[in-house]
């Protein structure tokens, strides 16, 4: 079993991603831009396949006449594609304007900025001198980093490191300060040489701001890039109801870009400043909402497993009450054990939130706050709503039961980039295969689910002569209308297999001498390496069957 959690494995995945054209740093020729990533030729296909699989499985392929396993009843699904810049009032009523922030902390010495909750530290002492050494490194790198920093701070040689007395393990700086076991004056910042350089933590709103129109400058022109796709769905709820025949329960799905000015983007694409979300807002009767919440949590969990993520590296985690977002009355996260995390740690792939009627009511009445267990419109000093709602009626009238109510919402909210990264990490394997002479050769292979694989099949003439390329090109042309495939005649067949293994191509079809005699080819399976002979005329149907 390969060690799945280590930074060097992650480094090799990042290196493959770059070398094979999956993911590049944005604006790389100018030195790159932190938190922004571009998808290369293979990456764009992988991510598109992932989004297409999601859209197909959740929306386009949904059978609205059937009661799916675990669902309380049949339901409908539809979609939207909303703008990135929306009316600023949307974000005031949603709560993002007031509440969508992280705590940041600056270092006066190094001029660097950190997310407060990302800093960890521990007490170190040497010959009567004590300091709370911090680091912003995560996973297995954090503890060795504090050792190196303490060594430097106390001016010790490598062989003197054992003289450092440690006052316990790593703990969150935020919690240590809150508990009074450390102060900022005692704290050595992650890039500082002396303690006391960290500022008091400050709030930092994560929404990117922009200005609309030529007369930019006035506060009236101030707008925001959406930090989630969800709000476009809520503000269009009535449009969808009025223009389509959907009835509660139903869901509206959207895939699109979101933007967050993350203080410390990190871990490759995991925490980016520009990323894509795949969100569903599912509208149901309040009384049925708990059952729908369970349905969506389990359905989304199963989706990742069906697409091949290793069960042992996935975790479903219900949030504790103090972890819930301002709108949520229940949330579960689907998390993945990314290799850049320490063993036992998981990173969020998707959140499934029971949002109650918070969003629709906020956009009707104005920004809501929780009070005495209920939601009320937040008022300013003048007694008026702090952020005024649209005043539009976003309730739903059930013409069969003759009931009117504000639907409750269940929101499965997934990140397309995080999921792409999880599938990439999970698929990454290093093993040994026999080369053309039967000798073991190490290979890197992406064992991607065929639905996600950027290229489904490669067609390879064994040699570039004797009529083999012609047969292979005919086969390529027969297959291409049905699936992404590649024709490759360059290099030894072993090297061509290796190239396709690294790209995650599940099947290679090789045209050889026998093909010319009996119109068969070898079909090589990427994972089992089994090679079987199949009739050329049956290849299209065979691979289409395998894909479906
Ligand atoms: N509408 C609810 C919402 O946006 P969220 O948990 O903030 O909830 C949902 O985001 C998903 O979006 C996350 O589970 C994650 O997959 C993705 N996501 C959030 N912030 C991200 C970031 N900075 N970079 C990449 N993906 C991110």
* DSSP helical segment count: 15
Q: Please indicate the percent range of residues in DSSP E strands (runs of 2 or more).
A: 25-35%
Total beta strands: 30
Q: Strand order within the widest sheet?
A: 3-14-15-23-18-17-16
Largest sheet: 7 strands, mixed
Describe this structure in a few short sentences:
The chain has about 550 residues and is α+β, with helices and mostly antiparallel strands. The chain contains 15 helices and 30 strands.
Structure in words:
The chain is an alpha+beta fold and 548 residues long. Helices cover 28% and strands 28% of the residues. The chain is built from 15 helices and 30 strands. It has a seven-stranded mixed sheet with strand order 3-14-15-23-18-17-16. Helix 2 packs across helix 11 (416-427). The longest helix is centred in the N-terminal third of the chain and has 20 residues, at 41-60. The mean pLDDT is 94. The protein binds glycyl-adenosine-5'-phosphate (GAP). The site of glycyl-adenosine-5'-phosphate has 19 residues, from strand 15, strand 18, strand 23 and helix 11.
Which helices and strands, and how do they pair?
Layout: H1 7-19, E1 23-25, E2 37-39, H2 41-60, E3 76-79, H3 88-94, H4 96-99, E4 101-106, E5 113-115, E6 120-126, E7 129-135, H5 142-154, E8 165-166, E9 171-172, H6 173-179, E10 187-188, E11 202-205, E12 209-211, E13 222-224, H7 230-235, H8 237-243, E14 250-259, E15 274-284, H9 289-306, E16 314-318, E17 330-336, E18 347-356, H10 358-365, E19 368-371, E20 374-377, E21 396-398, E22 403-405, E23 408-415, H11 416-427, E24 428-434, E25 440-446, E26 457-461, H12 468-479, E27 485-487, H13 493-503, E28 507-511, H14 513-518, E29 520-525, E30 531-535, H15 539-547
Parallel strand pairs: 3-14, 7-10, 26-27, 26-28
Antiparallel strand pairs: 1-2, 4-5, 4-11, 6-7, 6-8, 6-9, 12-13, 14-15, 15-23, 16-17, 17-18, 18-23, 19-20, 21-22, 24-25, 28-29, 29-30
Bound molecules: glycyl-adenosine-5'-phosphate.
């Amino acid at each position: 079993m390969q060690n799945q959690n280590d930074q060097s494995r992650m480094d090799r995945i990042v290196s493959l991603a770059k070398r094979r054209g999956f993911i590049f740093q944005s604006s790389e020729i100018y030195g790159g831009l932190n938190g922004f990533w571009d998808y290369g030729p293979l990456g764009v296909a992988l991510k598109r396949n992932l989004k297409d699989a999601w859209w197909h499985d959740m929306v386009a392929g949904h059978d609205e006449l059937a009661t799916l396993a675990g669902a309380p009843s049949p339901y409908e699904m539809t979609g939207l594609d909303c703008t990135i810049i929306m009316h600023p009032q949307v974000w005031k009523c949603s709560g993002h304007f007031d509440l969508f922030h992280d705590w940041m902390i600056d270092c006066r010495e190094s001029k660097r900025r950190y997310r407060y909750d990302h800093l960890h530290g521990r007490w170190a002492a040497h010959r009567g001198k004590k300091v709370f050494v911090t680091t912003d490194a995560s996973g297995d790198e954090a503890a060795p980093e504090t050792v190196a920093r303490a060594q430097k701070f106390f001016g010790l040689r490598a062989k003197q490191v054992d003289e450092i007395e440690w006052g316990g393990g790593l703990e969150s700086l935020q919690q240590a300060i809150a508990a009074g076991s450390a102060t900022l004056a005692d704290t050595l910042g992650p890039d500082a040489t002396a303690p006391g350089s960290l500022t008091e933590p400050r709030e930092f709103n994560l929404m990117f701001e922009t200005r609309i129109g030529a007369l930019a400058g006035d506060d009236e022109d101030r707008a925001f890039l959406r930090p989630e796709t969800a709000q476009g769905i809520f503000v269009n709820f009535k449009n969808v109801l009025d223009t389509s025949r959907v009835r509660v329960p139903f869901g509206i799905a959207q895939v699109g870009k979101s933007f967050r000015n993350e203080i410390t983007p990190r871990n490759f694409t995991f925490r980016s400043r520009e990323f894509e979300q795949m969100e569903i807002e599912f509208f149901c009767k309040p009384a049925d909402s708990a059952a729908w919440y369970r349905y969506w949590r389990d359905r989304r969990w199963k989706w990742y497993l069906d697409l091949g993520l290793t069960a042992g590296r996935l975790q479903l985690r219900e949030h504790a009450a103090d972890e819930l977002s301002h709108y949520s009355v229940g949330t579960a996260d689907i998390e993945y054990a990314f290799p850049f995390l320490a063993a036992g740690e998981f990173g969020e792939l998707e959140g499934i939130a029971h949002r109650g009627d918070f969003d629709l009511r906020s956009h009707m009445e104005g920004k809501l706050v929780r009070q005495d267990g209920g939601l009320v419109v937040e008022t300013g000093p003048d007694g008026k709503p702090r952020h005024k709602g649209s005043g539009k009626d976003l309730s739903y009238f059930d013409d069969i039961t003759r009931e009117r109510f504000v639907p409750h919402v269940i929101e499965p909210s997934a990140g397309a980039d995080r999921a792409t990264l999880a599938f990439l990490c999970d698929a990454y394997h290093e093993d040994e295969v026999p080369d053309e002479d039967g000798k073991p050769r190490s290979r890197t292979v992406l064992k991607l689910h065929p639905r996600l694989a950027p290229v489904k099949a490669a067609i390879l003439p064994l040699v570039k002569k004797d009529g083999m390329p012609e047969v292979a090109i005919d086969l390529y042309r027969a297959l291409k209308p049905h699936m992404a495939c590649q024709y490759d005649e360059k290099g030894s067949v072993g090297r061509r297999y290796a190239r396709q293994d690294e790209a995650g191509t599940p099947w290679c079809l090789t045209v050889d001498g026998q093909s010319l005699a009996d119109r068969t080819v070898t079909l090589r399976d990427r994972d089992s390496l089994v090679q079987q002979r199949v009739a050329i005329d049956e290849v299209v149907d065979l691979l289409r069957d395998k894909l479906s």
